[in-house]
Amino acid sequence: MTGYETCTVRDLRRAWIPHKELLSKTYPDGSHTAIRFHRACSWLAEVEKLVSADTGEVKDIDKALVYQWIAFNALYGQWNEDENIPKKDISSWREFNGKIVKLDADKLFKQVLLDNREQVETIFNNQFLSNYFWRDPTELAAKQSRKDFYSSHTWYLAGNWTNILDQLVRRIYLQRCQLIHGAATYNSRENRDSVSLCTEMLDHIVRASMLVYVRYGAYEEWGTMCYAPVK
Question: Is 229 contained in some domain?
Answer without folding.
Answer: no
